[in-house]
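Many introductory courses stop at the sequence. We go one step further.
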Amino acid sequence: MFPYAYQSSSITIGTYGVMLAIAYLTGRHLYIKRLETVTSKPINTELLIILLLVFGVVGAKIMFVLKNPERASFSDWSSLTSGSGFSSQGALLGAMLVTYLFSHFNKVSLDKLLDSAAIPAVIAYIIARIGCFLAGDDCYGKPSDLPWAMSFPNGIEVTHDTVHPVPLYEIGYSILIWFYLTKLQSKSPKPYFMFMHLMLTWGICRFLVEFVAANPIKLMGMSGSQFGALLMFLMGLSYLAIQQLNSRQKKAG
């Protein structure tokens, strides 16, 4: 593991933080390029990107504290400002909220903003998960004796037991989702089509991975992340069901 990209007596730069920065810059570049091809109205993309960063980070930190009260607290400033301890689902909620607000106040089509973000978000997530894996930032899974199980003796959160390498699972299914969305994008999909397919596929994959993740059970026999993944899946499934119903009604009419 490589928890630190650079470390000296006075400066420490975490690998996870570096990978998050790369993920942000990559996602930013891809998102702006995509918006330029789908929006006819000029929009302040730089402002939107900055807002996405701020709301994403704040949402990620808030959700992490809510899901892990035993590890972080709103009254503990050090845990709030730590370079580790983020929730991808919290980042997603924060990004969705600010995207809606930006769309409302700037009279920009919300579906174009969300659909354009689908593939850049997945690619950025893959890069961030690579950072999590390299840092050993407590994102590994339950103990396992499977051939590919790993230990993280040099990680930020040390474990000498062999465990499920959950970040590698997340990287794997995210790459598949990336290819799947890329194929869908060429079909001139309907509004929210790309984003809802992201919710559907991301939700079911994360839900399944949570069975081997080391997150504590919080609600209805599920971890907080697993419950959030279920909501994502149901959101995407509901959209597809409504689209299918509307299509049948048009054919019948």
